[in-house]
Amino acid sequence: MILTDEPLLRAPHLHLGGTWVRASGGGAREIRNPADGEVIAVVDEADPDDVARAIAAARAAFDAGDWPATPVAERAALLVRIAELLEAHRDDIARIETLDTGKTLRESHIDLDDVIAVFRYYAHLVAVDADRLVDTGDPAVLSRVVHEPVGVCALIAPWNYPLLQMSWKIAPALAAGCTVVAKPSEVTPLSTIALVRLIDRAGAPPGVVNLVQGAGAVAGAALTGSPDVDLISFTGGAATGADIARRAATHLTRVALELGGKNPHLVFADAERDSAVDAVLTGVFLHSGQVCSAGTRLIVQDRVADEFVAALADRAARIRVGPGTDPSSRTGPLVSEEHRAKVEAYVALGIAEGATLITGGKRPDDPRLAAGSYYLPTIFDHCHRGMRIVQEETFGPILTVERFGTEAEAIALGNDTAYGLAAGVRTADPARGERVVRALRHGTVWLNDFGCYTPAAEWGGFGRSGTGRELGPGGLAEYRETKHIWHNTAPAVGGWFD
Ligand code: TXE
């Protein structure tokens, strides 16, 4: 039991070069349960010197250690051992994730299953992914394309899916032979501490996986401004992503950015109504809308819109909001008071912009929820593309509704976004479905489904949703350099300058 025989809540929480240490400056941060505001841990907070030590440890493990050249089968075996340990501690870590983020235990268990599947997937992929031979036409030349690890990777994750997002980075990085410095969100660090403990126990060599904690402006900035980091993989807000890309450009450090979205869900009049209502509802209100791919923008065909929105509002008003540890809760609180304040400001903006509030728009009345950062599922009807509430990522339980007449209008609205992470389409007409999914400029498009993903398929965005891909072979490619080796087995005088 991670929580009892190795108390997570007790320091130290920084992992540098294979050793757990306190923050050298004595910094620490209180971590609160968003369901009731209680302090559940006090976590060490790194200062820039600690971050420099973490990078130096990762650098040494990469430049002078065995890990980058460790046979692929051994690297894959480490990933499998990590997956097995995660399976053994699944319930404990799910509980930690729920206490830290507020999400329901059911969601945390699903996250854990995804994380385990991702470690297993990359163990398999890297083991079967062979070098490529190239036929040059000259039998004396052995030409091949091989993959090598990119180097030291800074992995920065957000607070909505702390363990899942970090695992989408750590698993392919380790599979590729990289060394890493991981920094979880300062708001939700606990499950990543648990993960790094398990990685340690699984036998990762010292310095291969380092962990720092702390604020983006301090620990994050030190990590992303270092010339000794070869790749920064970041998931979080667009403004932070742009800031990181600017800093990375100083040293031409590679960046991979997953920056969220404002995701349209297109519903045609011929779509089967009950399943479409259900998909739109789940797509936007799961995890109280704190999902980068949440379907926050309903775009519905005008002749069924009134009836569809009424059915949706009825179901939204009945979503049971409550603590993630209560099995009867269907969605939990927002991650923090600060974040709820941001969501509330967006609701006020929607009203000021003239959208029609048809459900939610406030905190729950239940006095038992008063100490948590809860917010009710909220729907705004009669929205239009010029509204900020339609264009900006609110990252809360807010759905906006727009109407369309023709297929061309639906596509135009679906593409009218600076982002491009994900989109959904619902129609009973397969030919139209195929036309529309091909026309939408988004990294993932679901046809008659929503929110699904699998470790074997790439995940990432068009436009301002970011650069690069996670998951799938593309997610492994982010962590690898490609090298072409040209071996002339019969060298002879070429005679160019005779
Ligand atoms: O995220 P930040 P915030 C969106 C969502 C949300 C907004 C801001 O709209 O309201 O972003 O959220 C680290 N250098 N998403 O402020 O700041 C930080 O410590 C290096 C979308 O909480 O992007 C944390 O580890 N690192 C999203 C991580 O970046 C820095 C998920 C994310 O924090 C840094 C979360 C800096 N200067 C929010 N500043 C998604 N795509 O899923 C911060 N960090």
Please give a structural write-up.
- The protein is an alpha/beta fold.
- It is 39% helix and 19% strand.
- It has helices at 2-5, 48-63, 72-88, 90-101, 105-128, 162-176, 190-202, 216-224, 238-250, 273-285, 302-317, 337-352, 388-391, 407-414, 430-439, 472-477; strands at 14-16, 19-21, 28-32, 39-44, 132-134, 141-149, 152-156, 179-183, 209-211, 231-235, 254-258, 264-267, 297-301, 356-359, 378-381, 398-404, 422-426, 444-447, 466-467, 480-488.
- The strands form five sheets. The protein has a seven-stranded mixed β-sheet with strand order 14-15-16-13-12-17-18, with helices on both faces.
- The N and C termini lie far apart (75 Å).
- 53% of the residues are buried.
- Residues 1-5 have low confidence and may be disordered.
- Bound molecules: ligand TXE.
- Ligand TXE binds next to α8 and α9.
Span between termini: 75 Å
Strand segment count = 20
Biggest beta sheet summary = 7 strands, mixed
Strand content: 15-25%
User: What's the average pLDDT?
Assistant: 96
What ligand species are in this complex? ligand TXE
> How would you describe the shape?
globular
The low-confidence runs, each spanning 5 or more residues with pLDDT under 50, are 1-5
Counting helices, strands and paired strands, the structural category is: alpha/beta
Work out the helicity level: 25-40%
Please state how the strands of the largest beta sheet are arranged side by side.
14-15-16-13-12-17-18
Treating each run of at least 4 consecutive H or I residues as one helix, how many helices? Answer: 16
Radius of gyration: 24 Å
